[in-house]
Give the backbone structure.
Amino acid sequence: MATTKLKFKSKKPNPIASRASGSAASKKKTSALAPAKKTPIAAAAKAAMKPPKTKPSNDLPEASTKTIPKTDPKLEKNLAKKPLGGLDTPIRIFQIYYEAWQKELLDPNFAALDNSKGNSELLEFAVFEKLATTDYVKGAQLWGALSWRFTEKTGMSGSDWVKEISAHPGNDVYYCNPYPENEALFHNMWLHGDTRHPQFLALAQAVFQVTGLPVEELSSILSSEQFSAANYFVATPKFWAAYLPWVQKVMSVANKKLPPKVRDLMHSKGADEADLHKGATYVPFIVERLFPVFMKSEGKNLKGYKIALPERERELNVHVKLLREMKDVAHRTKSAWLAACWINYRNLYLTQVNGKEWCAKHLRNITPTEIKFS
């Protein structure tokens, strides 16, 4: 758990104070009835009624004689509105950043959270733990903390994210999966993890055994609705009050009961051999996959809502869409036959996409011999 003090900075756009606009002077047209017969007096009177011809004065700057352009209404609206997920709102969403340059990429609808001094191997979970004890979330109906790469990963803006939450009230936790292709290609996220982190499945089995978690979860077929990733949670205090201590207990028991060599492996940087996560240990990858296990056990009475990500969905090809649909139908109907068809189709697809070498290394490990549903 991180021990550094968190800093929050809420970006609030300043509304435009006033709008200036210019108007062109209009000329009045006058008309007069000419007398039937011109006389010297009439001619003089008519001449006197004509306005004198004068040249434009050069006393004023040229710009003052031109119309001042109006503010773009769309820009004005964006500047005037308040952040939807700021510190003074019922839905409080923080966005974590670690380096100064990342602040430029933060969404203005979230409250910036400086975690540059954070050093916990729990990563985002450590931020959740610390936030839960601060006044920043006091009185909030929902709160959460997202990464600085939120828009990059989800394809959603902060305003769209908050609007989705507001459009589906009454849930305890709102989450998403920035990698929907995994819903089509893997039984669950534990088997997916085995293709990303060496010895991941064996380590997960050891953790489940010593903590009393259902080991069958590691090989069961999950529906797409149960997939989540990246710890993108916005939830009620009720959810956090149950979820945080549950995860803490699981990891505490694992640390106490795992054999020393296995425990050392869990805390080693072997999980990130490619250095894609700045040398992260196995711990955060285990923790982020515990969410569906929690929702079916300690959190079974909580309501969850999965937010769809249109941009990520548009990136899926026809095979991935069909594979996901096959797997979901098999899960819904508990059809072992259809699940077997899905596995065969999936294996063929992975062979074509990832190649024989990848399949020779991973396919057997991610294809349990027994078909089970969870």
